[in-house]
Design a protein that fits this description.
This protein is 5% helix and 46% strand. The protein has helices at 16-23, 52-57; strands at residues 8-10, 24-25, 40-41, 63-65, 83-84, 90-102, 109-121, 127-135, 140-148, 153-157, 171-181, 192-197, 200-205, 211-223, 226-228, 232-240, 245-249, 258-265. The strands form three sheets. Strands 2, 4, 5, 6, 7, 10, 14, 15, 16 and 18 form a ten-stranded mixed sheet that branches. Strands 1-11-8-9 form a four-stranded antiparallel sheet, with helices on one face.
Length: 268
């Protein structure tokens, strides 16, 4: 078998490896198998809200728009939304505060009034990662996103959980770095059958060939028609014999709100 690795088209490569390693998290936590939901398809439907009107109609749990409760202006300041992120084909389509689980570092700790943006990929290219920042008169705010397909949107929280302040006026800083996928990713559904429940994935090698190397399943959280969090999770299986099936615990996989994006594998 061929190792399906993506080649990077990197505009700015400083910190790229560190960013990818931080954002591709492996979930593992003990779960009570008696509490797991019935196995179902791991494919969650992701809608395609890309216009400002469609984005505005999204009811994101825990989100408060920058314009809410303000008079004579917006906390977005110089960010007339949608705000194009250079010539990347991506844009910031919403800005505001978020209260809920902080997903960006995999901790899922509760955060309050965290600065949040929605980024939409209106280009024809799938983005492997992007690092960008906003600025105000008093601070700098960083955002990291990974695995954003063309035509999709993602809610991204400020990387260090900094709070949204209605008294601040936010302005675009810069796209610090980003990279595009240069090869198509695949679920390799001619080889694998992937099913999931809350807290676990079950993967079967339905082919007649043993896979002796590592198999990685990449997935994201999704809700209300968009991806939730810049983070992309990764689950690992150490090989699968022909016809073999394995179950792996994945603390961040949820049956009704996770979408498997692609699979990579290699034979040793």
């Amino acid at each position: 078998m061929v190792n399906h690795k993506s080649k990077l088209h990197v505009l700015t490569v400083l910190g790229a490896l560190a960013l990818v390693s931080i954002m591709l998290m492996t979930g593992c936590a003990n779960k009570d198998p008696n509490k797991l939901s019935k196995l179902s398809s791991s494919m969650v439907d992701i809608k395609n809200p890309t216009t400002p009107e469609e984005i505005d109609e999204l009811e994101i749990p825990g989100f408060v728009d920058a314009n809410s409760g303000t008079e004579g202006g917006t906390a977005a300041g110089e960010l007339a939304l949608p705000y194009a992120l250079g010539d990347s084909g991506l844009s910031i389509t919403r800005l505001g505060s978020y209260t809920g689980r902080f997903v960006e570092d995999g901790s899922d700790t509760l955060c309050f009034d965290t600065l949040m943006i929605v980024v939409t990929n209106n280009s024809e290219n799938d983005v492997q990662y992007m690092k960008l920042h906003l600025e105000s008169e008093s601070d700098k705010y960083e955002f990291n996103l990974t695995s954003l397909p063309a035509g999709k949107s993602v809610m991204v929280l400020e990387a260090s959980c900094k709070k949204f302040d209605t008294q601040e006026r936010y302005a675009f800083g810069a796209v610090d770095s980003y990279a595009l996928y240069q090869e198509e990713r695949s679920l390799h559904d001619d080889i694998f059958v992937i099913k999931g429940a809350d807290g676990k994935l079950v993967v079967k090698n339905k082919s007649k060939t043993d896979i002796t190397g590592s198999i990685y399943i990449y997935y994201k959280t999704a809700d209300v028609g968009i991806y939730i969090g810049g983070i992309t999770y990764r689950a690992k299986i150490d090989g699968l014999a022909a016809g073999e099936e394995k179950e792996i615990e994945t603390s961040h996989y949820l049956k009704n709100s996770s979408k498997v994006l692609f699979v990579t594998f290699a034979n040793e």
